[in-house]
């Protein structure tokens, strides 16, 4: 047992764990072990940062969308991601941490966000594949998190997951349309699938045996399924969709096991994953610069809003 848990009051800890095991949610004012609070802040803030940084690769294509319909869908999707970031920062604040502090950690390069957003969006097909793969992976992960033991996170996930399902469908529809188009359009979809498949599988985190946080997260039902279980569910869901569109996936070891009913997959490049997560991806620098600029450009808005709210407090 970790030292941080040993220092907790054993009676309170037992009551807390009994509550979780009975399926009750933990709410902000309830007693919780410090490690539970710390783990939630880590995960929820990484999640919020991912939503906000995740607006960049797609936002990059809003002005280049090929039709008004596609532009409206993309604009709505990117706005949804901003909303997800907002709910998640709000939910994290219920744990007694300040949103400004979390954002500073991101801007100073001290906080993680999802590996996937450090890859570039080179063609229009990437917008479809992000919806299909990235939002599909997020939907699988977040459907599990909607059952998590912390009330505010679980409730935020319920709403976010509904929106992710829409994002996933619009992405698949975009790709289906490209696949039914000219040979060049189909090839553009295939090229995009080839580049995004493996990074999307890595979104679920390292294999269970190398996942340092999983044990405690699963004990306290923050996560109710493991990284590998969710990765497998996503693969099983997505492979038939690719086949239906005549697309191939870039894994020579992918094969269906009729006994387990799983699509078995080959080795993932975890060296690449850790390099990307630790700042050495293709777009890490660009993403951080964009967020720092956005933060600086928004300073006057935050200051004006704060002054207005302070003035209202004085008047009232
Ligand atoms: N990327 O012990 P592990 C979206 C880190 S955005 C980067 O298995 P855990 C969207 C991990 O943090 C949706 N880092 O971790 C938005 C840990 O490092 P620390 C994003 C990763 O927490 C816009 C270390 O590796 N979703 O949908 O048990 C447009 C060891 O990992 C990643 C979420 O954030 C990664 N992929 O499990 C479109 C979901 N994976 O912190 C779409 C919430 C692992 O110990 N988060 N690491 O230094 C989770 O469900 C879990 O945190 C994870 C990882 C499954 C991601």
Would you tell me the overall average pLDDT?
Answer: 96
How far is the first residue's CA from the last residue's CA? Answer: 51 Å
Order of helices and strands: HHHHHHHHHHHEEHHH
Strand order of the largest sheet: 1-2
Radius of gyration: 21 Å
Number of strands: 2
Concise overview:
Helix content is 67%, strand content 2%. It is globular, with a radius of gyration of 21 Å.
What does the model show?
- With 316 residues, this protein is mostly helical.
- 67% of the residues lie in helices and 2% in strands.
- The protein has helices at 3-6, 10-21, 34-53, 55-59, 68-93, 99-107, 124-145, 151-179, 183-202, 214-219, 227-244, 270-280, 284-297, 299-315, and strands spanning 255-257, 262-264.
- It has a two-stranded antiparallel sheet with strand order 1-2.
- Strand 1 and strand 2 form a beta hairpin.
- It is globular and about 60 Å long.
- Bound molecules: benzoyl coenzyme A (BYC).
- Residues 42-43, 46-47, 50-51, 54, 81, 112, 114-115, 130, 134-135, 138, 141, 145, 202-206, 211-214, 217, 227, 277 line the site of benzoyl coenzyme A.
Reconstruct the topology from this structure.
Layout: H1 3-6, H2 10-21, H3 34-53, H4 55-59, H5 68-93, H6 99-107, H7 124-145, H8 151-179, H9 183-202, H10 214-219, H11 227-244, E1 255-257, E2 262-264, H12 270-280, H13 284-297, H14 299-315
Antiparallel strand pairs: 1-2
Benzoyl coenzyme A binds near residues 43, 204, 211, 214 and 227.
List the defining traits of the structure above:
316 residues, mainly alpha, two-stranded antiparallel ribbon, 14 helices, 2 strands, globular, binds benzoyl coenzyme A
